[in-house]
C-alpha cells in the first residue's frame, strides 16, 4: 500500500499548522518524521488518523483519495495511529483492550474465549510475551506499547503511525521496539515514525522528512539502512 499526502494544509484560525505538505509512505518502508515542537507533526498524524480534518490537500491510498476521514474510517482503511498516550484502558485486561472498539465494526462479535485466543495470537505475532489476562495497568511502558501495536496489527493495519514510541521506554525496551519495527517493515507494513532521535533515524528509517513551521523543508532517502541495499 502507498499512502500519499499531497498539498496537505491545516489552519487553526491564523495558525498554519501544516502548509502544503507532500509526503509518501510505502509498504515495506519506515518513513521518519522529524521536527521541533510546533512543527506540525501531531497535526499531520491526526489528519491521517481522521481526528483532524485538513483545510485542503489530499490523503490517498494507492492513488485513491480518502474523503472525510474519521477515526473509524481511517482504521477501516488500514491506518492505525499509536499516539503517545496509547489509548489503552488500564483497568481492562490486555485481551479486552485488544478488542476494545471492535464492537463498532460491522457485525464483528467474538465470544470471550475465542477473543483470548485471537489476542494471544496477535501478541505472538509481534513476539510479545504478555499474558492476555492481566490488566494493562500492570504492564511496563514497553509492554503497553507492545499491546498498542498488537491492537493495530489485529486490526489489519497497513500503515502504522508511531508517535515517539520510545519516549517512555527503557533502553532494553527501545531496542526490542526497534527490532519489531524492522520485522513489521519486512512483513510489508508502511510505517510513519515520529522521532527526534538521530540513532533511530539512522538505524530504522528508509526515508526522512523534516517539518519546520508546517512545511516539509527537507526530505531524503537514506542509503544503506538495515533494509540491506
Ligand atoms: P508538533 O506535533 O510538531 O509539536 P503540532 O502539530 O502540535 O506540532 O502543532 C503545530 C502548530 O499548530 C503549532 O503552532 C500549534 O500551536 C498549533 N496547533 C496545534 N493544534 C492546535 C489546535 N487544536 N488549535 C490551535 N492551534 C493548534
Ligand atoms: P504534541 O507535543 O504531541 O504536539 P502538545 O502538548 O503540543 O502535544 O499539544 C497537545 C494537544 O493540544 C494536541 O492535541 C494539540 O493539537 C493541541 N494544541 C497544541 N497547540 C494548541 C494551540 N495553540 N491551541 C489549541 N490546541 C493546541
UniProtKB/TrEMBL annotation:
Q: Which residues form the ABC transporter domain?
A: 3-229
Specify the domain of life of the species encoding this protein. Bacteria
Q: Which residues cross the membrane?
A: none
This one is known as Sugar ABC transporter ATP-binding protein
Q: Which residues of the full protein are shown?
A: 1 to 229 of 516
